[in-house]
Amino acid sequence: MQQNLYKYLVLYRRLSIPELGNFIIEPSPATIDSSGKLILPPLPVIQFRQETALADKNFYHFLADEMGVDEVEAIKQFRDFSHTLKTAASGDDGASLQGIGRLKATKTGALSFSPAVDVQDLLPKIALPDGIAFHQPEKITETKEAMRAGTSAEENGTYQSDSYWWIYAVILLLAGISAILYYYA
Fold it and tell me: What is the pLDDT of residues 153-168, one digit of tens each?
């Protein structure tokens, strides 16, 4: 049953389990690490929302096809699984969903969720070439200092030209390459 639930979640990006809530795969954008030298890839993140969840007819049809049974039997087995999962989540160890994560009831009765795999470990980080780091250009800071002193940046000798456009072009190029690699890998 758990393999079929994971497969449905990956294919349709949403899985509703009655009595528990909804699992949703949401994309998070690519980011740059704190050192400014690595581009972290965009990540699909599994989130859990404890809310009223109703499985739809497409889900039951999918489940029946995957299990090789009729829809009535698939609905019965899924409801039994859902009830067993809710009971296990209330236990000391919580409930584990293969490939998805672990649910555990807190003292207040709410469910906490921790994903099974940190997808950050699965996708490669892209290192920027030596000498290139993503940061705020110094021109802005120096211009502000010159304005406080009452002189222009040109008079103060701290003015720098706007020649940082190529850094952004390289970052966009690397992000595009990583997106293509992610899509075809």
Answer: 445 554 455 567 778 8
The pLDDT of residue 122: 53
- What is the token pair recorded at 63? 């489940």
In sequence order, the 6+-apart residues with CB closer than 8 A to the CB of 96 are 102, 103, 116
128 is written with which tokens? 């920027």
Neighbours of 154 (CB within 10 A): 10
The long-range contacts involving 164-167, CB below 8 angstroms and separated by at least 24 positions, are: 164/137, 167/132, 167/134
Q: What is the pTM of this model?
A: 0.58
